[in-house]
TrEMBL record:
Protein name stated in the entry: Putative pre-16S rRNA nuclease
Gene: ruvX
Species for this entry: Keguizhuia sedimenti
InterPro entries: RNaseH-like_sf, YqgF, YqgF/RNaseH-like_dom, YqgF/RNaseH-like_dom_sf
Pfam family, one: RuvX
Taxonomy, superkingdom: Bacteria
Length: 127
């Protein structure tokens, strides 16, 4: 059994979800809302240490036509930083429309739910 962490990267918050290779069901885990990049990665380091994921899945935003935009590049950079800092395999998942299926709520829960949708999409595509 391998643990998989999913990330919904945002400039203000990062949603995190968890799942495993046996059950293949993603669950919202937490939202990281630290003020600085170093603080965000310190929180991620704690999660990596606790969950010891074999893979980290990062949502890659795109325009509806599939082309990339500014946030796509930022998400790729975040994914590269995860790989470089924690030596974990990274998979990018197209996250177009992932937030469209989440009931619109206020607060940080939506970020963790978005991460769970991204991670579930990974599980469904790699069945």
């Amino acid at each position: 059994m391998q643990t998989v962490l999913g990330f919904d990267f945002g400039l203000k918050r990062i949603g995190v979800a968890v799942g495993n290779s046996v059950i293949r069901q993603a669950q919202p885990l937490t939202t990281i809302a630290a003020a600085t990049n170093d603080a965000k990665f310190a929180e991620i380091a704690l999660l990596i240490s606790e969950w010891r994921p074999a893979i980290c899945v990062v949502g890659l935003p795109r325009h509806p036509d599939g082309s990339e935009h500014e946030m796509s590049a930022r998400c790729r950079r975040f994914a590269n930083q995860l790989h470089g800092r924690f030596n974990v395999d990274i998979v990018l998942v197209d996250e177009r429309y992932s937030s469209a299926v989440i009931p619109q709520k206020r607060g940080e829960l939506i970020d963790a739910q978005a991460a769970a949708i991204i991670l579930q999409q990974y599980f469904d595509e790699h069945a």
